[in-house]
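so my prof wants the structure for this chain in the tokens format not the other one, which i didnt know existed until like an hour ago. anyway here's the sequence
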Amino acid sequence: MKRAFLAALIAAVVDAQLAGSLLAQSQTAQPAAAGEDAASAPGKVEISFGETYAQRGDTQLKADMYVPAGEGPFPAVLVVHGGAWRSGTRAQLGGLAEKLAEGGYTAAAISYRLAPQDKFPAQLEDCQAALRWMRTEAARWKIDPARIAGLGYSAGGHLVTLLGALNGATIDGDAATDQIDDALRLQAVVAGGAPCEFQTMPADSRGLAFWLGGTRGEKPDLYRLASPTAFATGDDPPMFFYHGEGDRLVSVESPQAMCDKLAAAGATGQLHVVPRVGHGGAAADRRSLELGFAFLQEHLGQSGDSPSDDDARAATTAAGAAP
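here's what i got, hopefully its the right format
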């Protein structure tokens, strides 16, 4: 059964790759209409499109929910799309989210605010709001709140990595808060093509000004706050990265730096380098998907598995927190 699910999971992402890279998809894929319900083959997955997880002014932020058949509770995965923080929709990883649900994980594929209209840390704040919502609504979506992972590619990979590295902290102005909120903790991270270090960018480069509001020379604190490497500590969740050896958009040195920081702190960071492919090619790499799914199984388990005592205590606190 695991092998059949994995083959289907790989096929879903490979099909997406044949239509273009995930970044190209981000400009064409559209989410389903708000409130629209659908179901896959009977007895497999229940799908609910357009669920509101947060309100930002007049804008409702939406999630598409993919829930396994059965009573649960199930481990869950927050699925975050890429698109350079300025494009993309939750629909582009919908096929992957559905296959995760077929494998026994409740998956939440989210939309989030985009730059340049909404600059950092808006995207992180939306991911944190979605994670809190998943725990607050855990019973509705048959989620085990003690076992939630983040999964994303490219900008989505960065966001779940930063979410994991902050490990319950939030960003307020030009600093991360000291107060820890257990509702905002992840138990594992799977990130592909993820930029993890912005503090070494040329001080006068305007390549990320649309998102961070200026150059590194102008906004050094924001470049640090956006860098997961700045927050690597020993209590970070285990993280798995996969990356194309020939990626010219995001250097493989970026996730390697994160893994080095995690190792130095005593946390788990694994990097799988895909030979001879670039940013888009690594997204559909068969071996990377096998390893990523195995990583989720190792650190989240499956329906009916018992969380650790520490995770259970954190989840009890988180599930009772105000949304």
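also thought this was worth mentioning. Residues 1-30, 34-43, 306-323 have pLDDT under 50 and may be disordered.
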